[in-house]
Design brief:
By secondary structure, the protein is α/β, with parallel strands linked by helices. The protein has two domains: 78 residues, 2-Layer Sandwich (Alpha-Beta Plaits), CATH 3.30.70.980; 157 residues, Rossmann fold, CATH 3.40.50.150. The protein contains eight helices and 14 strands. The mean pLDDT is 89.
Length: 275
Amino acid sequence: MEYLELIIRGRDLSQLEREIIISALDHLGYDGILEDEDDIRAYAPLAGMEKKPSEEMLKILIPRVRFRWNTIPEVNWNERWEQQFQPVIISDKLYIRAPFHPPIPEIPIEIIIQPKMSFGTGHHETTAMLLELMTDLDMAGKQVLDMGCGTGILSVAASKLGAGHVLAVDNDRRAWENAQENCRGNKIRGITVEHGDVAAIKNRSYDIIFANINRNILLRDMTTYVQCLSNDGILALSGFYESDLDDIKGEAEKLHLKHTATLERHKWVALAFRK
């Protein structure tokens, strides 16, 4: 069976624009969607997919987006995942790999992630920076919140670094399912995965909160995060660009948070604050 491949130029898109496009492609019925720093690639059987609805969708959602089409032989998805996701090492403490990668025994903590179509494999700058910040925190016995958990990678890392309990929340059902699968695959029991949004965390308390989402949602929900953060607790945020830095910091100052750390990679930023 031949497949139709839609290649969307992703380098010029924000994380929010990428999420919007991927959600729309999923609703259009593509069999598989792969994402890297440069492109978003969507695949569907050639016989059952017309180009016009996809082209119209892209022009409506993001008129400036660039894309092209290919026709390719039948897709071996396992092979494509192996090509797409290489192992990641964070601060010589965390080794993140897919099930088909070999272990590295000398790195103390191993995390196995089956990424599927959820965000969070350690490759994207925002995920890597939050993992790096995490390795510098005392996680022992802490109550941790992972907002916008994607694959659950931050939740698994927090648990393996000693967190007492982690709540992982995502409003995407695929991410919710994928995070549960990755918790089971890493034999983690101290994580609760919930399908929902910021409403799911109200009236709860956390020592450390991670939120890797996007600028608009972070600004909208930061007040709730702070209300749920224990005194002297840590709020670590990413999913936004350097150009958003003043807005994020400004909102944090209004909420009387103390800025403690900044990481920047390829114009992406991660910030940590203390309450």
